[in-house]
Design brief:
This protein has helices at residues 15-32, 39-52, 63-79, 85-101, 107-116, 130-140, 162-172, 186-195, 228-242; strands spanning 3-6, 121-126, 148-151, 179-183, 200-204, 220-222. It is of the alpha/beta class and 243 residues long. Helix 8 (186-195) links the parallel strand 4 (179-183) and strand 5. Helix 2 crosses helix 3 (63-79). The relative contact order is 0.15. Its cofactor is Mg(2+). This is N-acylneuraminate-9-phosphatase.
């Protein structure tokens, strides 16, 4: 193994946990300042669903407008009446700023990346909107741990398209067969690594969920990214024994 590509969200940083903390702050705001009761939780639940189904096209809209609209729609669906853009903006910016504050690289993850980088080249490969992903990268201050950072929203195609993996290989001067992809999403991280013919794919399955039969099958499954150094050693040993 000469290079490892890492996904960002819920692989290196707990994006889902940070988002939940943001939602809790919005619930507090709506209950204390605006005297919403259970509607506050309903609104946040609705926004969460909208985020999970989000289809973003940078050419036609900006992420701030789109996500403010999620809040505006959720408030209107729950409370009725006229759209309240001002409140939607207040909720969105509170959720976003709280979320970014809680996006951190844990000390043990930093230590692991530092050690790994002595042996192999490291690249961060994340899908998503350019502005959103760059804000997260800035918030968790992870730039110094990687040889290169590639954001899908800045490329012609995102994971699982092979082209973005070949672009990463070219950046590092390595062949796909020398690289390992590590991520938490089967449909993008694992399928993409398989599509591009990487040496191995590693699925981070924190919650021990059973994938669907139709899902792409990773080469390796671990419950934490911290298991990676030992796994990489065993991959290298297997290769040298079979050589």
């Amino acid at each position: 193994v000469r290079a490892v590509f890492f996904d960002l969200d819920n692989t290196l940083i707990d994006t889902a946990g940070a988002s939940r903390k943001g939602m809790l702050e919005v619930i507090k705001l709506l209950q204390s300042k605006y005297h919403y009761k259970e509607e506050a939780e309903t609104i946040c639940d609705k926004v969460q669903v909208k985020l999970s189904k989000e289809c973003f096209h940078p050419s036609s809209t900006c992420i701030t407008d789109l996500r403010t609209l999620h809040w505006e729609e959720a408030i209107q669906e729950t409370k009725g009446g006229a759209a309240n853009r001002k409140l939607a903006e207040e909720c969105y910016f509170l959720w976003k700023s709280t979320r970014l504050q809680h996006m951190i690289l844990a000390e043990d993850v930093k230590a692991m990346l530092t050690e790994l980088r002595k042996e192999v080249r490291l690249l961060l490969l994340t899908n998503g909107d350019q502005q959103t992903q760059r804000e997260k990268i800035e918030a968790c201050a992870c730039q110094s741990y990687f040889d290169a950072i590639v954001v899908g929203g800045e490329q012609k195609e995102e994971k699982p398209a092979p082209s973005i993996f070949y672009y990463c290989c070219n950046l590092l001067g390595v062949q796909p067969g020398d690289c390992v992809m590590v991520g938490d999403t089967l449909e993008t991280d694992i399928q993409g690594g398989l599509n591009a013919g990487l040496k191995a794919t590693v699925w981070i399955n924190k919650n021990g969920i059973m994938p669907l039969k139709s899902s792409p099958m990773p080469h390796y499954i671990v419950s934490s990214v911290l298991e990676l150094p030992a796994l990489l050693q065993s991959i290298d040993c297997t290769v040298s024994m079979s050589a």
